[in-house]
Amino acid sequence: MRKLFIVFWAICIVNISTSGQSSHPNLVITGEDAANIKVHLGSVPLFDKSLQLAKDFVESAMNSRIDVPYPKDPGGGYTHERHKQNYNEMYNAGILYSVTGDERYAVFIKSMLDEYAELYPQLGRHPQGKKQTPGRMFWQSLNETVWLLHTIQAYDCIYDWLSESDRNNYEQNIFIPMSEFFINECTHEFDLIHNHGTWIVAAVGMAGYVIGNDDYVEMALHGSKKDGKSGFIAQLDNLFSPDGYYTEGGYYVRYALWPFFIFAEVIHNNQPELEIYNYRDQILKKALYSALQVTYTDGTFIPINDALKEKTWLSPELIFATNFVYAHYGQDRQLLSIVKLHDQVSLTGPGMMAARDLSDDKPVPEFNWKSVEYTDGPEGNMGGVGILRYGTPEDQETLLMKYGSHGLSHGHFDKLTFCFYDQAREIIQDYGAARFLNVEQKFGGRYLEENNTYAKQTVAHNTVVVDQKSQFSGIRSESEKYHAYRYCFNSDKPDFQYVSAKEDKAYPGVNQHRTMILVNDDKLYRPVVIDVYRINSGISHEYDLPFYYMGHFIYSNFRYDAYTKQRSLMGDDNGYQHLWKEAMGKPDSTSQLTWWNGKRFYSLTINTSRTDEIYFTRIGGSDPEFNLRNEPGFIVRKRDKNTVFVSVLEPHGIFDPTLEFTKDSYSTFKDIIVLSSDEKYTAVNIKGNNNINWIITIANADADPGSQHELSAADKILKWTGPVAVHK
Amino acid sequence: MRKLFIVFWAICIVNISTSGQSSHPNLVITGEDAANIKVHLGSVPLFDKSLQLAKDFVESAMNSRIDVPYPKDPGGGYTHERHKQNYNEMYNAGILYSVTGDERYAVFIKSMLDEYAELYPQLGRHPQGKKQTPGRMFWQSLNETVWLLHTIQAYDCIYDWLSESDRNNYEQNIFIPMSEFFINECTHEFDLIHNHGTWIVAAVGMAGYVIGNDDYVEMALHGSKKDGKSGFIAQLDNLFSPDGYYTEGGYYVRYALWPFFIFAEVIHNNQPELEIYNYRDQILKKALYSALQVTYTDGTFIPINDALKEKTWLSPELIFATNFVYAHYGQDRQLLSIVKLHDQVSLTGPGMMAARDLSDDKPVPEFNWKSVEYTDGPEGNMGGVGILRYGTPEDQETLLMKYGSHGLSHGHFDKLTFCFYDQAREIIQDYGAARFLNVEQKFGGRYLEENNTYAKQTVAHNTVVVDQKSQFSGIRSESEKYHAYRYCFNSDKPDFQYVSAKEDKAYPGVNQHRTMILVNDDKLYRPVVIDVYRINSGISHEYDLPFYYMGHFIYSNFRYDAYTKQRSLMGDDNGYQHLWKEAMGKPDSTSQLTWWNGKRFYSLTINTSRTDEIYFTRIGGSDPEFNLRNEPGFIVRKRDKNTVFVSVLEPHGIFDPTLEFTKDSYSTFKDIIVLSSDEKYTAVNIKGNNNINWIITIANADADPGSQHELSAADKILKWTGPVAVHK
Q1: How does pLDDT run across B120-176, given as a tens digit for each residue?
Q2: Contacts of A477 (CB under 8 A, 6+ apart)
Q3: Please, what's the b/e burial string for B587-622 (b: 16 or more CB within 10 A of its CB; e: otherwise)?
Q4: Could you tell me if A385 and A294 are in contact, meaning their C-beta atoms sit under 8 angstroms apart?
Q5: B40: alpha, beta or left, given left = phi > 0 and alpha = psi -120 to 50?
Q6: In this predicted model, what pLDDT tens digit does every residue of B81-127 receive, in sequence order?
Q7: What is the pLDDT of residues B447-478, one digit of tens each?
Q8: Active-site hit among A83, A410, A483, A578
Q9: What share of chain A in percent tops pLDDT 90?
Q10: Position B428 pLDDT exceeds 50
Q11: Cα separations (Å) of B567 from A173, A567, B280, B465, B726?
Q12: Cα distance between residue A174 and residue A181, in whole Å
């Protein structure tokens, strides 16, 4: 077998001077930290292991030919990967030089910088440059800022070792022109309130600290105009809600936190008077915890907006954040459980602290996933996401409902959507993004055309589509003007939790109100999700509610026509062109669909009548390059002015192929009847086996948890307190 | 949450008398074993845990109402599952009575037997009875024999405790009429050389030992006519090859080994003079080891023939076999690694021995999966299966090629098919069976119609289909007359292993010869599979070679027309009606297809020309009940008299979403040219990057490993020894 390319992440700038602040290196850690690290080397296994990784990596690089190729390929291609590899190599060599003082590392960095100083001035726009944000060395400027962020640290490590003419050469031919390029030619990105903006200001700011350019630092902190409307501080103000929720969602916060924490640590070390870790009521701490909460129990980020499902909190970007938050905010040992999973620490003072504490004898508690709501928007008044959970991490039901703002350029038209997990598996999925990260054959590893034409469209989500059009007509600038509204969230009782939100801008004249309730009962195997989705409009519309179930279809209680010999599409546009129509059902009354996944069955029971239709769909139409995953869904279609979709999503039974044992493969539920629904109240009757006969009542216009309500329904006077109740 | 039905498996009959052989119980273990168990109770954790499981299970049963319902439901339905539950409850109660002497257990069994003695005489054919093999209590007689096998042991345990009138009642109303039913009304099954035959003779034979009917025992051993043409001994002679390979394949041997070992242990204890464990050169030992070898490294049985992919060697049926082989054949500690995974032992002497040895301090080696060939047929001359492996169990390439006999009623028309694993995943899959075991909604949990119309058909496999027809025209009785021929197998060198076989009866006038070679090289990430599939016929045919790849399609090097708006079927019958035609490609020269699965890419490079076609297919057409898994495939179509399909299946590159790192997503291979192919030799040139320029030579008519060959090809004189060579 061929020797594999060794790749890994490790990081820090270690200051080997032992007294006071030397001028170089001066980025991520202090002299005291460095001295402390040296004292403990050889006695802290996880730190030593992390350092050894850096040594092996750089040793392998030093035994190979240096290659600084002329930029040619897009993401995933050789020149792209080579330049990424190069900055990682320089960067780690910088660390090792600082720790060991071995000049071989410095020579290696110098040799590579010599070539870059030769190459960089020759470069114009990258030949495969991304439309709006081309780099010079990379197809997008984003990768170039990451290159600078790493390389400036390598340079800083060998700064004192270099001759003044070398320093001049690198600063004049690389660091200054690159910084100027970012400030002057990428001004839009530089002043963007967006994770790309964070990368670029962090890189330029760090260059400023190293080469002593206060102007760069000032612009990094307060924007190219130094007016505070952009830059790092404005990003901290605007990209996170007061809870720390990052408006792009879990997948991107992981990436965004990397430059946030790197640059925060650099500021902390260089301008401690700014108290960056206390800024905005410790927003950086909140940012990490909210990122960790927006994962399923296998550490996978719940894939709202553009997101790749392979991403977990094991991502090396989170190593820094976890180490730094552990060190700066009171050593929460829960975080050590994640450090343990990372199996690597940052080569920094906080990294050493985390590694040492992991070696002590005290217990390391598992991360505590909990039911939680996060608000969205800088003021926390732009809707949010609600997460309901039930059960231990080993087998947990998790529901996420999304009702925030658009989520910047990676946002989807998916207000009031949800996704649901159980058995450490997706049960009702969010498609995530249509992209094969770094796979050159797939459009250079970029977002695929189908990401726009399908994955972002409303019909790709588990939320209502009106008249087969996407929310806000699929226009991002429109969607960014508005947000959904949180109505209520309550997770006080594990057996009865709910989240509820409203939306009235996505479709003109259409008011939507969705309430999702997690209800446990002795008559059930596990809690069920009751979904009450009320829609009102002055005129009649076609309302489609998709459910992207994961698993194998088992059974429906209604007849359907299956298109077994010819298949055609669900529609022509707005994402419908990507759905094959597999069958159409005409239900008589309450409909039921059952599928199998893993060791359980799942049933969706939903109120329907003879005027409704249920489609069986499969993703993958209009997809000549086979870019989409061919996964199934149901679409429930109603036509009306006002309607209520009420469904019960029920995990049930046991499928045990090892013991050849199957139990309760049929749903417990039988019938769902909307008793009444008006501006004030919605009342729903849900019936099932084991004498289940529940009435759900929702106060539609008063979310006050203390309000008392009374409603006459099903020959009963129902009384309750608060916005949502189940009467059993 | 509702309390789950507790189900598990534990087994034995414990003889609590401490001196010599008492007449009851007298089935699975001896008095010495029982005494030995009692001595060690409380000191052997795994045994104690296994016993506790039985106690909890029976305690829960004794706290519930006994229900012996009138039979009504098919597999998976309530009455079916209830009667299964009942025999498990009686059976475990029997063990516990024997061990503890606690009369509550005996009373419980008696109460249930009283009800069965009432019910059984009333029963005619089961209302949902399976066409040819109906039972009375169950829809198929098979389940009924399993009921008897368990219940007779429970009865045996409390035999001495019961009054004579009780015994009379049960024997006259249950055991004798049931045994007679099996012998007289299920004679066909009783005399069948098939796993169903083993169950029935084991059950009747055990009844014979308990109630003292030597006739039953004699018939169990030698067939209903006592002529030795059927019965247990004939089954041992005919169902296994001399290597122990079971003709139905891995999935069914798991099930078959259960009654084989139970009954063997009973015979061993009752008629030691038969030396059943030494019979046929220790065929029972070989049977277990070959079953274990026909798994992938996660313990999953490679799903040839009718097989459910969920089945692993964790199946409780293998607990007995593993324990008994461990005890009777010299305590091979490899087997303890499997006992450890079972996390349960049989409540028998051998179970105690395995549990005790697992508690000692000696190392427990991992099971040693190896490259191995098994012959098929009682004489070992009916072809076989060849398994090539490379790498450690953590990440092993495994290829299985199948060239044996039909495999009885569960056989598929799939001679010369193969499947391939890597990364503990299926890469080229065998579909297995179309069945949802015990899921009532899916045809009562039975084999589905699509099992015949798709899963068994040739086009459902990775082997050539001639003129869109299945092998032997899909007629089992024809297929059973013939078998494929092993040509050669060699796994002496890990870096160069091969298996080769021929077939000349599946399609009249068509001779097929497939050779699959696992080749490793320093220029590759991992070994590749080179597949040389030669077909000759006097007249021109259409040859289709499917590859059911698992993963997401990434790239092809040829243009294709994708059917993006309308989809239709690949054909009308022979399984083609179940394949959607997704795209058709017209290659220019060598074709290449790349897909992604897990952390790697896989490419298939295959010799094609402009007259060939490549179809992209998806399973799921003509499937109104959505019974099939909608998985993709490629079909390479050639039309000719004589042709050779040559392909390279190559795992390559790295897809690492955690480190956001992708490497070598393109195949190493470029070109495949058949240099020559005739009756004597086939020579193929394979070219690729890194200066790969290999010539493969195969001697087509001389498999002697010592034969020396010489061939002029590509301007070279090639010399080699043995049937297959790679010239690099």
Answers
A1: 999 999 988 877 789 999 999 999 999 999 999 999 989 989 999 999 999 999 999
A2: none
A3: beebbbbbbbbbebbbbbbbbbeeebbbbbbbbbbb
A4: yes
A5: alpha
A6: 999 999 999 999 998 888 778 899 999 999 999 999 999 999 999 98
A7: 999 999 999 999 999 999 999 999 999 999 99
A8: A410
A9: 86
A10: yes
A11: 58, 5, 56, 22, 43
A12: 10
Q: Which of A8-12, A545-549, A645-649, B75-79 has the lowest mean pLDDT?
A: A8-12
Catalytically annotated residue among B252, B431, B507, B615: B252
- Strand-pairing partners, residue A616, are A583, A634
CA-atom Rg of chain B in angstroms = 28
Per-residue confidence band for B8, with pLDDT thresholds at 50, 70 and 90: very low
B252 as an active site residue: the answer is: yes
Residues of chain B positioned with their CB less than 8 A from the CB of A603: none
In a domain, A320, yes or no: no
Handedness of CA B407, B413, B418, B420 (dihedral sign): negative
pLDDT the model gives residue A95: 85
Examine the fold and report which residue of B620, B642, B666 is the final residue of a domain before the chain moves on: B666
Alpha-helical segments (H) within B543-606: none
Distance between B587 CA and the closest CA of chain A, angstroms: 16
First and final C-alpha spacing in chain A: 64
Distance CA A38, CA A19 (A): 14
Calculate how close chain A gets to B233, using CA atoms only, in Å.
28
Report how far residue A22's alpha carbon sits from residue A350's, in angstroms, rounded to the nearest whole number: 20
Contact B331, B412 (CB under 8 A): no
User: What's the gap in Å between the CA of A315 and the closest CA on chain B?
Assistant: 5
DSSP letters, A126-151, are -TT--SSS--SSSSSHHHHHHHHHHH
pLDDT category at A12 given cuts 50, 70, 90 is very low
pLDDT digits 0-9 by tens, A686-713? 999 999 999 999 999 999 999 999 999 8
Encode A471-507: b = buried (16+ Cβ within 10 Å), e = exposed: bbebebeebeebbbbbbbbbbeeeebbbbbbbbebbb
Q: Alpha-carbon dihedral of residues A234, A238, A242, A245, nearest 10 degrees?
A: -120
In the prediction, which pLDDT does A30 show?
A: 64
Q: Is residue A26 part of a domain?
A: no
Of A48, A43, A55, which is closest to residue A8 (Cα–Cα)?
A55
Summarised one tens digit per residue, pLDDT across range A236-255 is: 999 999 999 998 888 889 88
Single-letter code of the amino acid located at B232: F
Cβ contacts of A2 on chain B, cutoff 8 Å: 522-525
pLDDT at A31: 63
Q: Which of B645, B666, B687 is the last residue of a domain?
A: B666
Query: What residue of B is the nearest CA neighbor of A84?
Result: B661
Q: How far apart are CA B61 and CA B58, in angstroms?
A: 5
Q: Between A438 and A405, name the one with better pLDDT.
A: A405
Q: Which tokens go with A260?
A: 């946030």
In a domain, residue A426? The reply is: yes
Owning domain of residue B116 = 106-238
Q: A329: number of CA atoms within 13 Å, CB side?
A: 23
Question: Is B659 within the bounds of a domain?
Answer: yes
Is the Cβ pair B658, A554 closer than 8 Å?
no
CATH code, domain carrying B526: 2.70.98.70
Can you say how many angstroms the Cα of residue B454 is from the centroid of all Cα atoms in its chain?
A: 19
CB atoms inside a 10 Å sphere around CB B539? 7
Which helix (H) or strand (E) segment holds residue B508: the answer is none
Is residue A211 within 8 Å of residue A175, measured between CB atoms? yes
**In chain A, how many domains are there?**
1
pLDDT at A9 over 50: no
Backbone angles phi, psi at A539, to 5 degrees: -125, 165
Q: What is the pTM of this model?
A: 0.91
